[in-house]
Amino acid sequence: MKNILRMTHQRELILEELGNCHNHPTADALYERIKKKLPRISLATVYRNLEILSEAGMIRKLEISGRQKRFDKEIEQHDHIFCVQCRRVDDIKFDQSRLFSLEEEQSQGYKISGCRVEFYGVCPKCQTKNRKKQAGKGECNGGGVKITCKKKGLSGRQREVLEVLAKSDDVCANKDIAAVTSLDPKQISCQLTALKKKGFVASPVRCKYKITEAGKAAF
What we know:
The protein has 219 residues and is α+β, with helices and mostly antiparallel strands. Helix content is 40%, strand content 14%.
């Protein structure tokens, strides 16, 4: 007999809040919404139930390269486009069959069941910000000297690690970060080492990390 997923109050609330979101939230963002209605729920419970609902086919899990996992209530086939600046994710629909096809001799013997396409770029809101920023570069102070200010650069992976640490109330191990991002443990270790050298993370407990004030300012 086929197992039927038991719908607990927590799962019903997660589905309800996910349905109210149209920005493909991360587990962390969804947790912030849910705990307003269910204060005693834990972040780990939200993570676990999102994975269960995803495996049951009731929601979609979006694993965008180099980004935190996001979730979508819409399970019908569609693809996504994400902004490389603000990390916004939007739906995009197109006929994949018109763009992608493999001849039998190209498929290496595989029976093709589908494909996944990622589009990325700069969203309209960020384009507007960029234009304003570009226009502001020509402004000078009273003495006619251009004023510039540059923050220490962070890679996309480093920002992703800092984002997880910034949202955590406790120190995080490598595996904790891997559970909520698309990075593998080896990549995370490299980023943590680099961030620690910059003074953006600290390790108060062996192999566990937290974000520093400098890290919060840089992020």
